[in-house]
């Protein structure tokens, strides 16, 4: 793009600072950086923190439900995430259980796998974590950290209350570093775990990962400012929900989608809370538009186009779904305008990457414990692309099951 610097200088200097920012706010970030090089006065406006805060929230806020990182400017964070999006320096993270033979019996292991670009190709790498073995744990990403909470010890047949945090930069270097955090107040299998600007939330879950489980409506929070303290109770959900889909929007609203309610009830209902601040969460949960059908074990995530997505799940004990619904939070109903996933699945891993594509892996249905396939959806073409499969620990009794996942960077 060519700039008529004389014409720009003639009128630009007369504008008030807030109007200069307003004029630049709608432009692409690359164009603004080019404009910044045309003169001292244009540079001052084009590099202002107020402008880059607007650009960060416009372009990348959907990736940061817990808020932007501390200790760097909005311009630095915008440029960093943009570089990561172009260099593929991110990972699709999957966490699940592997049931291994252990002498005369068997024992669980917690296995974490990452799909990253290595030597120009997407490849899986797997690690057995030095943490309590279990499946059906909650997983979320926030500011370079992975939070793992709850789960189910398949061998011991009991829910767990273990919580860990994993450093993402170390994981991307194939050196996963796991730190134990305070345990949940209650053991929870299949909880929803999500971050907000103030805290990590553990939502719902149940006493087991099986349909005889008691489903929970209780919610716990661990404040970011006090990770050495204990989990605290928060307002309960309107309905009990085990294996619900949970996600946070760019506005800090937490959506809890479907779930198993106990007594053979599968919810098509959805609820949300304004968790942008602790005060908003204290006001409790509100009903949101219902799904077209129940989706217990679905993946819920927030997309770059501003919609809440609900993928797969099950409408009863035996039938899993391949269909997808999405909700514009300003709209009165969910839309089914997305092509179905390649294969029916529930209790699987999924999430949007910095490339704006939707990644899915694994899951199970009534015919098998473990689906090893992986795919991603290109939102522009609305077409699913097959990615490398991951078969888990082939010699195990159950190679990789009841997984959860997210994209980390």
Architecture overview:
By secondary structure, the chain is of the alpha+beta class. The chain has two domains: 5-68, no CATH class; 88-408, Kelch-type beta propeller (Neuraminidase), CATH 2.120.10. It contains eight helices and 27 strands. It has a four-stranded antiparallel β-sheet. Helix 3 runs antiparallel to helix 4 and helix 5 (49-59) runs parallel beside helix 6 (74-87). It is globular and about 80 Å long. The two termini are 32 Å apart.
Relevant terms:
409 residues; alpha+beta; 16% helix; 2 domains; 8 helices; Neuraminidase; 4-stranded antiparallel sheet
Task: State the name of the first-level CATH class of the largest domain.
Answer: Mainly Beta
Strand content: 25-35%
Shape designation: globular
- Measured distance between first and last alpha carbons: 32 Å
Strand-pairing-aware structural class: alpha+beta
Tally of domains: 2
Helix content: 10-25%
Largest sheet: 4 strands, antiparallel
Under CATH, the topology of the largest domain is which?
Answer: Neuraminidase
Mean pLDDT: 89
CATH superfamily of the largest domain: Kelch-type beta propeller
Radius of gyration: 22 Å
- Strand adjacency order, main sheet: 3-2-1-27
């Amino acid at each position: 793009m060519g700039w008529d610097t004389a014409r720009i200088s003639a009128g630009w200097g007369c504008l008030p600072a807030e109007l200069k920012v307003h004029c630049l706010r709608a432009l692409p970030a690359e164009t603004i950086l080019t404009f910044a090089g045309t003169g001292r006065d244009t540079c001052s406006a084009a590099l202002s923190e107020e402008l880059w805060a607007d650009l960060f929230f416009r372009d990348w806020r959907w990736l940061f439900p817990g808020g932007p990182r501390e200790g760097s400017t909005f311009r630095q964070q915008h440029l960093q995430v943009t570089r990561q999006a172009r260099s593929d320096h991110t990972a699709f993270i999957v966490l699940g259980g592997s049931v291994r033979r252990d002498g005369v019996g068997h024992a669980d292991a917690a296995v974490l796998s990452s799909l990253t670009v290595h030597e120009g190709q997407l490849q899986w790498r797997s690690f057995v974590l030095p943490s309590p073995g279990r499946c059906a744990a909650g997983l979320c990403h926030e500011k370079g950290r992975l939070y793992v909470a709850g789960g189910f010890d398949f061998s011991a047949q009991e829910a767990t209350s273990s919580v860990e945090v994993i450093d993402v930069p170390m994981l991307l270097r194939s050196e996963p570093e796991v730190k134990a955090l305070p345990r949940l107040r209650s053991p929870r299998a299949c909880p929803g775990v999500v971050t907000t600007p103030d805290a990590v939330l553990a939502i719902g879950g149940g006493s087991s990962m099986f349909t005889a489980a008691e489903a929970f409506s209780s919610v716990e929070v661990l404040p970011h400012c006090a990770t050495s303290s204990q989990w605290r109770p928060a307002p309960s959900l309107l309905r009990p929900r085990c294996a619900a889909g949970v996600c946070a929007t760019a506005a800090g609203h937490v959506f809890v989608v479907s779930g198993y309610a106990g007594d053979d009830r599968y919810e098509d209902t959805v609820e949300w809370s304004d968790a942008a601040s602790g005060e908003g969460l204290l006001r409790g949960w509100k009903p949101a538009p219902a799904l077209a059908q129940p989706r217990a074990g679905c993946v819920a995530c927030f997309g770059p186009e501003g919609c809440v997505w609900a993928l797969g799940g099950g409408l009863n004990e035996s039938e899993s779904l391949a269909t997808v619904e999405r909700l514009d939070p300003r709209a009165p109903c969910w839309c089914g305008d997305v092509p179905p996933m390649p294969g029916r699945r529930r209790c699987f891993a999924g999430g949007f990457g910095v490339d704006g594509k939707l990644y899915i892996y694994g899951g199970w249905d009534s015919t098998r414990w473990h689906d090893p396939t992986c795919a991603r959806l290109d939102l522009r073409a609305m077409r699913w692309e097959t990615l490398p499969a991951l078969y888990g620990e082939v010699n195990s009794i159950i190679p990789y099951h009841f997984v959860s996942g997210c994209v980390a960077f």
